[in-house]
Amino acid sequence: MVQERRILYEHLDVPNINTFDVFRQYEGYTRFEKAIAEYQPEEIAQMVWDAGLKGRGGAGFSTGEKWSFVPRDIEPRYLCCNADESEPGTFSNRYVLEKNPHLLIEGILICCYAMGIETTYVYIRGEFTLGKKMLDTAIKEAYEQGYLGENVRDTGLNINIYSHPGAGAYICGEETGLIESLEGKRGQPRNKPPFPAVQGVFMKPTVVQNVETLCNLPFIVGNGVEWYTQMGPTYGDTRFDPPKADPNTGTKLYCISGDVNEPGVYELELGLTSTELIEVAGGLRGEEVKAVIPGGSSAPILTHYELDTRLDFTSLTLAKSMLGSGGIIVMNETRNIVDCLLNIMKFYAHESCGQCTPCRWGTPWVRDIVQRIADGEGRQTTITRPKFGVTESGRWGDTGETEEIYEDLDLLENVANNIANVDTMTWNTICVFGIAVSWPAVSYMRKFRPEFEAAIREGKLVTLPVAEATVPPEENYAYQQRFIPKEFADL
Amino acid sequence: MSDEIIQIETPFQFNEENKREFDELIGRYPVKEAAMLPTLHLAQRQEGYITPAVMKYVAELLELSVMKVKDVVTFYPMFFEEPVGKYVIRVCHTLPCALRDCKVVLDHLKEKLSTDVASETNLAKGTTDDGKFTLMKVECLASCDVAPVIMVNDDLYKNLTPEKVDEILEQLPN
Ligand SMILES: Cc1cc2nc3c(=O)[nH]c(=O)nc-3n(C[C@H](O)[C@H](O)[C@H](O)COP(=O)(O)O)c2cc1C
Ligand code: SF4
Ligand code: FES
To answer: What is the count of structural domains for chain B?
Structure first.
């Protein structure tokens, strides 16, 4: 059985770890002290790059690489800590804020030192009243102890941290939406480029980093790169010669919810499978796994055929899904996928910021189609038409077969793909919220098509047995990764 | 909306404590506008909801047009432009909570409070006649491990059942 590997969460349950004195007893702030005593700022940035740390907030972008885009000659530079945590199924940042806020402060200090940043804003979602209170108290203590403010610990560094409350909009988790919101405007994402690293908050270079990402920094500095890279798999990308290292290092705070016996946050090394994770979380509640959402509601769904896909950044990208925020939602055999999709589409229709027409109109449209299917009023046309697909000659075209049309399913895929096309990975919108809409919409529909068809045919929601509800991988392009070659291998 | 058109019956002003907090806040940002969200939160806590007078006051404090403030207020679901009950009950209804029967909790609350669910444009619909409660549905509250959850004002309640909901409602002071 897989063991938990608690690093970020190691001292989470120590009584009063939220106070400076207790945190200090558990090596608190010693890693920051080590950083300023032993390393130059550039060396820290290099260590973070070498450690292979990838952002834990959603995009999984290499943190060291992101830092390298920040122009060091423009002053001032800012750090925005993304504590907006609103991706359905994600709840790991909340515990850090409520129980161990000093760890986040230490991570912020290391980042500020490495990047020469003096001001940090922690954007906390508005509903986290307790989390904000705990963080504010911890910040106050850190000021009193001389770890924040002017001339930190007599090093000549000035570092300030301010918490900033959001007000209930999901889109403010998107980094440029967050920046707009922080500037006191509507949280509507900006066009990129310029990226925040070059022109972010108040039009200055800005590092936007998730809470969990920042909490990794003390451990990279404290225990060294070598120690850190031993956790989790490193793959070799064989599109390059020699294969380019593709690190999935460190631990991940997997948030697991839905049909498991002991939902919660489990800190494990990256790279275990869904089956293993469900086992760690007390086993399945129910008979059979029907589906697993691997990375918050935006991630394409995995079927029971894919339970041995490793839950790390690279493996899930190859499986045409994503690790995202690490919010894993498990569904057992009693769940109806149409119903689940309806729930998620209601969420997105509510949260679109309204700037781009495809997203503003398309998302409620997708919701309405799914609603119609769930209500038993899905539209079906019974004519048959030539089936398009990969022909014998290996090209896309008329296969010579015929298929029955379910008008609403075609429409669903069409509308979703016109917000953001999941096959070509191109989007007609300002931010990738568009992908977050069409990814679930299209993947649920393609992978659990029999259940959608049944709902339309029977005029009501029908929950099929798992085996019948799922389209097997061999027959379906929903599973295949078309544009990234498959020949990744373990180094 | 120019400033003259808004009918303001009683002007709004921060009380001592909030004024002090605002003065501290404003120093954190290189531009005043950035203090918008925290300032609106302070104002809403004092006044209960964002009235036109509040918007005018905030606009003056931050040296913006009232329109700009209104623009922001309408964007964020946590700011109310209508009166709400003393206790705002937020019921999470996103997927993980739905998988754990949040609907039972919601239906129970509806019946118990004999009210409908508020919508963002019609808060009165979900407010009880005595003005004690406002019932609304919200999206994931980042507590899916302890689903289903509700928030009553600032407090989160976990692993709910109808019985637990009854207990919570009973121990709320009038
Ligand atoms: C619609 C949308 C919502 C997002 N929500 C969050 C969020 O709640 N928390 C978060 O940390 N990142 C969120 N992100 C990802 C951020 O844009 C950004 O990639 C991240 O904060 C960068 O930090 P990291 O590199 O440390 O992950 C979201 C992205 C999108 C497109
Ligand atoms: S894609 Fe949607 S959420 Fe993103 S900017 Fe456009 S309208 Fe807003
Ligand atoms: S879905 Fe209810 S807390 Fe996440």
So the answer is: 2
Q: Which helix (H) or strand (E) holds B79?
A: none
What is the pairing mode between strands A396-404 and A384-390? Answer: antiparallel
Q: Which ligand is nearest to the CA of A430?
A: 2
Among B104, B144, B151, residue to substitute to test ligand 3 (most atoms within 8 Å of Cβ): B144
Pair A255, A327: CB distance under 8 Å: yes
Chain B nearest C-alpha distance from A75 (Å) = 13
Interface with A, mutate which of B58, B61, B62, B94 (most A CBs under 10 A) = B94
Question: How distant is the Cα of A124 from the closest Cα of chain B, in angstroms?
Answer: 11
For residue B22, the domain's CATH number is: 1.10.10
* Whether residue B166 sits in one domain with residue B100: yes
* Alpha-carbon span A367 to A375, nearest angstrom: 12
Same domain for B101 and B135, yes or no, is: yes
| B78: contact with A, CB 8 A cutoff | yes
pLDDT, tens digit, 9 for 90 and up, residues A458-480: 999 999 999 999 988 875 666 65
Q: Which CATH number fits domain A337-462: 1.20.1440.230, 3.20.20.370, 1.10.3720.10, 3.40.50.1820?
A: 1.20.1440.230
B159: left (phi over 0), alpha (psi -120 to 50) or beta: left
Q: How far is CA B12 from CA A425, B9, B55, B81, in A?
A: 50, 9, 9, 15
Alpha carbon of B29: minimum distance to chain A alpha carbons (Å): 9
Same domain, B102 and B127: yes
User: ipTM score here?
Assistant: 0.94
pLDDT at A486: 37
The pLDDT tens digits of the residues spanning A157-169 come to: 999 999 999 999 9
Which distant-in-sequence residues (6+ apart) come within 8 Å of A271 by Cβ?
Answer: A232, A233, A248, A310, A311, A312, A315
**Residues B23, B67 within the same domain:** yes
The verdict on a CB contact (< 8 Å) between B77 and A255 is: no
Q: Order of strands across the sheet with A488-490? A: A244-247, A234-237, A488-490
Question: Cα distance from A130 to chain B (closest Cα, Å)?
Answer: 8
B141 alpha carbon to ligand 3 midpoint, in Å?
Answer: 5
For chain A, the domains span 20-230, 244-334, 337-462
Whether B106 and B157 map to the same domain: the answer is yes
How many Å lie between the centroid of ligand 2 and the Cα of residue A345?
A: 15
Compute the distance from residue B19 Cα to the ligand 1 centre, in Å: 33
Q: What is the pTM of this model?
A: 0.93
| CATH value at residue B136 | 3.40.30.10
Instruction: Note the CATH number of domain A244-334.
Output: 3.10.20.600
Per-residue pLDDT tens digits for B118-133 = 998 899 999 999 999 9
Q: What is the DSSP string of B49-72?
A: S--HHHHHHHHHHHT--HHHHHHH
Mutation target for A interface from B95, B120, B153: give the one with most A CBs within 10 A: B95
- Candidates B31, B41, B142; nearest CB to A91: B142
Q: Which of B90, B137, B141, B156 to mutate to test the pocket of ligand 3 (most atoms within 8 A of CB)?
A: B141
Ligand 3 centre to CA of A262 (Å) is 15
Residue among A104, A102, A99, A116 nearest A21 (CA): A102
Residues B124 and B164 in one domain: yes
Alpha helices in A152-263 (DSSP H): 175-182, 211-229
The reported pLDDT for the residue numbered A483 is 39
Chain B residues with CB under 8 Å of A255 CB are: 144-145
Fold observed for domain A20-230: Rossmann fold (3.40.50)
Could you tell me the residue range of the domain that residue B29 belongs to? 16-75
A297 contacts B95? CB cut-off 8 A: yes
